[in-house]
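Our consortium's second objective concerns turning raw sequence data into structural hypotheses that experimental partners can test. To show how far this objective has progressed, the report includes one record in full. It was chosen at random from the queue rather than selected for favorable results. The single chain below, 591 residues long, was entered without modification.
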Amino acid sequence: MRIIQHFTKAIRAAAVYNQEVQAAPACILWPDRDRQWEAALPLLKAELPELFVLGDYEPARQTGPAIWLRCLLAGVIEEVGLPRDQPPIFYLPGVSRQELRAVESCPAYLKPLVELQYRGCIWSQLNGKDWTAFAYLKSDQGGLGLDVARDGNTKQALQLALRPLLDQEIQPLRGKRLDHDYFNTLLTSGDPIRDVLHWLDLGEEFRKSKSESEWQAFVEISKSRLAFNPEQEGVLTAAAKLAVREGSWQGVWERFCEAPKRYGYIPATIRKCQPPHDSIFWQMSDGTFDGWPQWNDDQEKSLLLDLQALASMPAHKARKKLLDLEQQHGRRRLLVWAELGESPLAKAIGHLACLAQKTQRDLAVGSAEDLAKGYQDYGWQADNAVIQALTHIRKPADLSAVSSAIRAVYLPWAENAARYLQQVIDGHAYPGGTVLTKQTTPPKKGICLLFVDGLRFDLAKRLAGLLEKAVCMVVEQPYWVPLPSLTGTGKPAVAPLFGSHKVVEEGPGYAFEPISPYLLKKTIHENGWQILDHNGNGDSQGNAWCEYGNIDHEGHNQGWKLARYLDGLLLDIRDRITTLLRAGARRLAEG
């Protein structure tokens, strides 16, 4: 385990709580009066996506003033989303725990955060002091318990070597005396490419962290390996060479692309350089300008305009245009800018191209069963492509452009299929049957019925894929959705209510709920089925009914943004299923 991995676990552990008597903390406050951890922020942000910093307003770097952090926690800032599986961590450079505690004398700029010490938790030492780098290495209570010298030179060298130190493996440091010589050795890494990347990332701070002899060694190595003099030519010249990627700089570029989030400020440095805008080839996608974030920005703007233009195109032309745009922009998904989140439309266009392909085939053919078969075979992939395209979107302008593309090719396809189905079944019985013709044969023993509210067919296919990766055998049995497709109607349609007289078709005033929630569970229980809560596994010898998953609820709360969180929701459902199977259920059916 590396030090940064231990650090990540340590700070997240501050949010551990007793669910029996406590509420989950809203956030983790991380005070750092002496700003000891500030230099390592780019590396820490790469490991802690939930890390936000108190400072000047720079949302792209997850940094902002106290009121911005409060708004972020309240979920009212659309451009920046909070991870759903971890409470946010608010790093407070220049702020001590004592300042937060002293409510009356607390500086005005901190006051929006004061109450969070009661709703959240503070990451600090057991004695209440802020965690310094030295204390974290030395302490065996929440820290690493290493043997670190206490002299001033060691502490100074430790501070300078903090970033490379975080990358070190812990086990070799056990039983070893860590003094200023050790930390100074970390500064001369013996890896010139990594040193160049750190210099490009930190700029003058890198220079300040080096002794004169170390700096001169770095200069000489750069001259011999890269034909470049950092002292005379400077950071911006080096950044431009990195973007051009010629000669030995190609190796530097490749190392940057291996872990771009470790060098979080390099893209901003390249943006300060003048790119070759005046080249007649600037708009080409042959890879010549891949190293320039400005080129990627222009490609995104061009794609935005092309997607917006689809709103005025007929569906068949819009589909062809989407496929052409995928050919033009698809390769940008493989570039470093996509990994850094700067190519959302390039990511979305792959799914929109899939949508264009799937909607070329019309569902409106043959009988109702033919239409259903077509949807099972390929139609669901169009629904899935819509959701996947929205997964990458954050900005309102991007949402508008992607929505234009979706409406252009998906809406007429879906409406045509829906109207055709209405025509086919007009004057006939609904293909899904009625509550009076519901199957009444009880299943075999050992079956668990799991009802997932809002599990559409396309989501069920994604869930099936997750289960197969978890070495589960999945057998699909599609059926027509009960009408109206609401929770109150859907549950009784799949619940074990065998032969029950309580479920009847209503006359005038039908309220979409053929049986009340209370009576539903009562009837299931009377039929000999166990009713499991979210965590219970029941008796593996009998049959069980379980309700799990918040897809429908989250959909009402999040709207289109639900697309971002579906992977996590489906993983939760997969884990619940595998838990039930391990507990002894021979077979598990989902509704």
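The partners drew two points from this record. The CA atoms of residues 390 and 561 lie 8 Å apart. The radius of gyration is 29 Å. Both points have been shared with the crystallography group to help prioritize constructs.
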